């Protein structure tokens, strides 16, 4: 059984937990502290408020241990705010959070909550069919550095990418009925254990 953690500090936690528990061979663990990091094969950093999640990672002394685990190869997937948490560079900001993934992101790039939208796209390596993508105050990747593979773009903006053991998406797959992205991440976790 592959145990996939969902960072449970703030944001869309339950929805990711439900998706993981619907994948055969996977089980979800809500990660609330440093100790929980020892019990997982991969981690999802959910959507929410990136500034709040970053502050709570620091307050709970989880930032450095989590960064070490990612740098040691543990698979991690940041959705929406999670993408910002992973990024080495946040445009318009002089700081980052984990700063592990070679991407420059623009926060709230798609506007306010009122500008939320759904579209259907093919995500390379994830699904051969178009899958629903939900955008809520979403960021996008302004620039991907060498070694980052772009999996999907929308209007020439990068909305899904991967760098080694790190996956980032602007959108919220946990808010759809589609399991493709969660299965893709499950396979990333499984492949690492081979």
UniProtKB/TrEMBL annotation:
Keywords: Glutamine amidotransferase, Hydrolase, Lyase, Pyridoxal phosphate, Transferase. L-glutamine binds at residues 48-50, 107, 136-137. Catalyzes the hydrolysis of glutamine to glutamate and ammonia as part of the biosynthesis of pyridoxal 5'-phosphate. The resulting ammonia molecule is channeled to the active site of PdxS. One of its GO terms (biological process) is pyridoxal phosphate biosynthetic process. One of its GO terms (molecular function) is glutaminase activity. In the presence of PdxS, forms a dodecamer of heterodimers. Only shows activity in the heterodimer. The gene is pdxT. Pathway: Cofactor biosynthesis; pyridoxal 5'-phosphate biosynthesis. This is Pyridoxal 5'-phosphate synthase subunit PdxT. HAMAP family: PdxT. It comes from Clostridium sulfidigenes.
């Amino acid at each position: 059984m592959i145990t996939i953690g969902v960072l449970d500090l703030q944001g869309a936690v339950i929805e990711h937990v439900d998706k993981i528990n619907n994948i055969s061979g996977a089980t979800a663990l809500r990660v609330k502290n440093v100790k929980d990091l020892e019990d997982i094969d991969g981690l999802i950093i959910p959507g929410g408020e990136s500034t709040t999640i970053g502050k709570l990672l620091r307050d709970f002394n989880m930032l450095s241990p989590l960064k070490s685990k990612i740098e040691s190869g543990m698979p991690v997937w940041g959705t929406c705010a999670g993408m910002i948490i992973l990024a080495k560079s946040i445009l318009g900001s002089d700081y980052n959070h984990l700063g592990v993934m070679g991407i420059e992101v623009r926060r709230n790039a798609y506007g306010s909550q009122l500008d939320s939208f759904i579209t259907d796209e093919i995500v390379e390596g994830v699904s051969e069919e178009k899958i629903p993508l939900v955008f809520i105050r979403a960021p996008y990747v302004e620039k991907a550095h060498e070694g980052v593979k772009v999996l999907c773009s929308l209007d020439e903006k990068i909305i899904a990418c991967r760098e080694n053991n790190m996956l980032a998406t602007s959108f919220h797959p946990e808010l759809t009925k589609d399991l493709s992205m969660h299965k893709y991440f499950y396979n990333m976790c499984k492949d690492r254990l081979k």
